[in-house]
Design goal:
- By secondary structure, the chain is of the alpha+beta class.
- It has a single domain (35-161), classed as Roll (Nuclear Transport Factor 2, Chain: A).
- The chain is 35% helix and 33% strand.
- The protein has four helices and five strands, in the order αααβαββββ.
- It has a five-stranded mixed β-sheet with strand order 1-5-4-3-2, covered by helices on one side.
- Strand 3 and strand 4 (133-146) form a beta hairpin.
Length: 175
């Protein structure tokens, strides 16, 4: 009788051990939290992007976008392909541009580590029709996505001016 109880105890212990191993093996392992490192990578990438734009290097500037990116510039329709994005930046960085810079004020990375958004400001100076430098300041939002190679690319970019809108044309016309 004693040996039968010992066998039951061994069986119960073995059953509990197998059950424990089964339940721990089936639990989903959580990926390590890389948000701080991802934030630093995006911050540095954005700094590099601003430097490329400041040097008026259109090809390098456009390379910071993913292939499926959307750019929504002020007072214009959104552009959604690399050629249109290239053309937009070529015009923006053209001969009338005096300077351009921007910087992030907030970066938030998703816990999943594959998406992030960035809020920030920009400042640019361009020549007006008379050749005088006119400064513009504004805000921006960028959405970043981690690519299969681990690099971050901008998938959505919108920016708009803090400057007051120009007054509408006068409706006073002489008949």
């Amino acid at each position: 009788m004693l040996s039968r109880c010992a066998s039951c105890q061994r069986f119960a212990l073995l059953f509990c051990l197998v059950l424990f191993l089964f339940t721990t093996a089936c639990q989903q392992q959580q990926a390590p939290d890389t948000r701080a490192a991802d934030e630093a990578a995006i911050r540095q990438t954005d700094v590099d992007w601003a430097k490329a734009a400041a040097s008026k290097n259109v090809d390098v500037t456009v390379a910071f976008y993913s292939d499926d990116a959307t750019v929504a510039p002020p007072n214009s329709p959104a552009v959604t392909d690399k050629k249109a994005i290239h053309d937009l930046w070529a015009a923006l960085l053209g001969p009338d541009l005096v300077s351009i810079t921007w910087a992030p004020t907030k970066i938030e990375v998703a816990r999943s580590g594959d998406l992030a958004y960035l809020n920030g400001w920009y400042k640019m100076s361009a020549k007006d029709a008379k050749g005088n430098a006119v400064e513009e300041k504004g805000k921006m939002v960028e959405v970043w996505k981690k690519q299969s190679d681990g690099k971050w690319k901008c998938v959505s970019d919108i920016f708009n001016s803090d400057m007051p809108a120009p007054p509408p044309p006068s409706s006073d016309t002489k008949k």
